[in-house]
Predict the 3D structure of the following.
Amino acid sequence: MTKNTIQSLERGLKILTILGSSDQPLSLNEIAGHFTIDRSSVFRLISTLLQNHFVQQDTDTKKYSLGFRLMELAGSFNDQGKIESIIRPIISRICAATKQNTHLAVLEGADVVFLAVEQPRESISVNIAVGTREPAVATALGKAILSFRDSGILSTLLDSADLRPYTERSILSKEALRDELAMARKERIAYDREEYKSGIVCIAAPVINYRGEALYSIGISGPSGLMMPRIDDFARVVRDAGIEASSKYGYSGGTE
């Protein structure tokens, strides 16, 4: 270690490097194997990174991988090679087919974070940057992910949900939101009809993995005047794209 450096920070950065260079999540023991310090010290370092969302932990396997806070800082995040190689071409096709702003997002806490953004060349009506955060309960991208959450987890999320009036169309009833999420799960498509921003309509579909979990969502957004006349056509495009992306992630449950 060179002079004038902080040892614990160097070790934390080393953990991020180890996770970033792995093609799969790693257990605590696998990470600790790269250090000469004791396992409990490595666990404390990982816990700090986890608490600050630089690392995430799989609830089933308890293994660790890079977290989405890195994407927010860097302005890009490639899900260890998969988002760019699998999802980006699908997003590009949606954008070309609908000529609307197209997004890929992930759920982090009570918000969705934009991981990728495609904008049509013809017009740019809603300028959203990578790393933007929006409330999950008020957006189509968030609802698409929430609709596939386990009922117990969803109940906990809804109990603490901040249902505020972003616009006059915002959903303020938890029962109404629960009903909408049930419909989104059934139809594999979620809507935001000017609930978060006046004059802006969004449509999104979940991207589901082999465990039946919605890890991401993909969707489009645009002015109500452009979106509403073709909302059914746009919904079919987005829904089909979500099904395609889910299939590439190993989901074989079909449509509901």
Notes: The chain has a mean pLDDT of 85. The first helix runs from residue 7 to 21. The radius of gyration is 19 Å. Strands lie at 55-57, 64-66, 101-108, 111-118, 133-135, 190-193, 200-208, 214-223.
